[in-house]
Amino acid sequence: GQNIDQPTEMTATEGAIVQINCTYQTSGFNGLFWYQQHAGEAPTFLSYNVLDGLEEKGRFSSFLSRSKGYSYLLLKELQMKDSASYLCAAPFGSGYNKLIFGAGTRLAVHP
Amino acid sequence: SAVISQKPSRDICQRGTSLTIQCQVDSQVTMMFWYRQQPGQSLTLIATANQGSEATYESGFVIDKFPISRPNLTFSTLTVSNMSPEDSSIYLCSAQGSGDPETGYGYTFGSGTRLTVV
Fold it and tell me: For residue B1, which of B36, B22, B18, B26 has the smallest C-alpha distance?
């Protein structure tokens, strides 16, 4: 079966660093996605990891360990606009075309 | 990535009625999907909309309740049938077109339809 776990809520202070963790169990593996979703809006793509290690994209970085079934999203220099839900997702199905999502982590950034 | 227009953006419906949600993509895409997102929760895949054939439903979702059409490579509809208050949710259309890892392999989402059943 497929299962993705991530914390429900996190809070952080403006300017700080926050790490959002995601653990996954999937039959087969074809990468891991991170999406950002502001309330009432569509999810938007942040990152995709298929190999172990850290991928850095400006203030956002994503890490993957395939042997541990673990990923994290690292947000640096937090801004108020980073308050959103962060969704971890993995492809599944015979063609790995479908996405299964974790429950999402609601991040609240405070001044 | 493709851009998705989804309508209506919200609706309030009476129980027992049906609502059809439309999803229009600005370019031809290989795959189209429908998700449900209940308040404060993540996305659950309802079905894959297949062009020219019956949709493929995930466990817990059936065609009689959620009939789906996909007449071409840019358009799909989801109908929520015989609605009850438990169907109150956000329904999102998604598409996968061409794309590389840097752009998330072309997965994109509509802004969703917020449905309230009273």
Answer: B26
CA-nearest residue of chain A to B107? A45
Closest residue of chain A to B97, computed from CA coordinates: A97
Per-position DSSP letters for B6-72, written without gaps between them: EE-SEEEE-TT--EEEEEEESS--SEEEEEEE-TTS-EEEEEEEPTTS--EEPTT--TTTS-EEEEE
Cβ within 8 Å of A, B 67-106: 92, 94, 96, 101-105
Q: What is the mean pLDDT of each run of 10 residues along chain B (118 residues)?
A: 92 98 94 92 93 94 98 97 97 89 84 96
Question: Quick one: closest CA in A to B31, which residue?
Answer: A97
Cα separation of B87 and A107, whole Å? 27
**Residue A58 CB partners (closer than 8 Å, separation 6+):** none
- Tens-digit pLDDT profile for residues A60-108: 999 999 999 999 999 999 999 999 999 999 988 887 788 999 999 999 9
Nearest CA to A46 out of A111, A38, B98 is that of A38
- A102 touches B at CB < 8 Å: yes
Does the beta carbon of A108 lie under 8 angstroms from any beta carbon of chain B? no
